[in-house]
Specification:
Blueprint: H1 8-18, H2 22-53, H3 58-65, H4 69-76, H5 93-105, H6 114-123, H7 128-136, H8 142-150, H9 166-181, H10 189-199, H11 203-210, H12 215-234
Helix pairs in contact: 1-2, 3-4, 5-6, 6-8, 6-10, 6-11, 7-10, 7-12, 8-11, 9-10, 10-11, 10-12
Organism: Saccharothrix ecbatanensis
Domain Clp R: 88-228
Protein name: Clp R domain-containing protein
């Protein structure tokens, strides 16, 4: 058995060093515990996805984690749902606006799909996701045109509450995973873009692929931009500024 990379002593020291009062430490410990639970869920989810891509059956996966096939599917297969929590709690203001914009684009649809989420990302033009797409797409505006051409033009009655499709739910899950993987405490538009690209099966992923926006190139660009922003923030102000 591989030893856990995080030790209890390390967590105690981290909390104690950042919070001088005992109640502040307790609050921070509760928050950290929730984050660790989420990390564990996404760790298992990562390897479930890997096993599925390798051809493992749900029966095999269930046996590996000590549950039935049905229980494994219930836990790891996304369902159509209007619910975004708990991941929505850590969304930035820009990411929340993207979801609002996605709902707007889906106003004549029965579902909110990856295509609507991608249009929301493009509309939030100040976000890193839109800037990444503009940097990588074959030519200006081609991604928007590709996704607009793929939209279902049939007007349908929108249910209340309106559900996200299974593809979109998976992309939102993978967006949180991308944030956790890079050690970020937030989910921004850039993570939503990485989620769409990692999901791979929805309309948005196909539109992005058709216009040359790949997962590898997007992730490299996003990581560089975030690291550059962090480094700029850390630079001391010049004397007399």
């Amino acid at each position: 058995m591989v030893a856990p990379p995080v030790q209890l002593t390390d967590l105690i020291v981290t909390v104690a060093s950042e919070h001088p009062d005992v109640l502040g430490r307790l609050t921070a410990a509760v928050e950290l515990s929730g984050q660790l639970d989420e990390l564990g869920d996404h760790l298992i989810g990562h390897f479930v996805d890997e096993a599925r891509r390798a051809g493992a059956s749900w029966t095999d996966i269930g046996e590996s984690i000590g549950v039935t096939k049905q229980a494994a599917q219930k836990r790891f297969v996304p369902k159509e749902s209007p619910d975004l929590k708990p991941s929505f709690d850590r969304y930035t203001d820009r990411a929340r606006r993207v979801v609002v914009l996605a709902r707007h684009h889906a106003r004549y649809s029965e579902h909110i799909g990856t295509e609507h989420l991608l249009l929301g990302l493009l509309d939030e033009s100040g976000g890193l996701a839109a800037k990444t797409i503009a940097k990588l797409e074959a030519s200006e505006g081609t991604t928007r045109m590709a996704v607009l051409n793929a939209l279902d033009s049939t007007v349908r009655q929108r249910p209340e509450p309106q559900p996200f499709t299974t593809h979109c739910k998976k992309a939102l899950e993978l967006a949180v995973r991308a944030s956790l993987r890079h050690g970020h405490t937030f989910v921004g538009p850039e993570h939503l873009l990485l989620g769409l690209l990692a999901e791979g099966g929805g309309t948005a992923a196909k539109a992005l692929d058709d216009t040359g926006v790949t997962r590898e190139a997007a992730e490299a660009y996003i990581v560089k931009e975030i690291n550059d922003a962090i480094n700029r923030a850390r630079r001391p102000a010049p004397p007399g500024a």
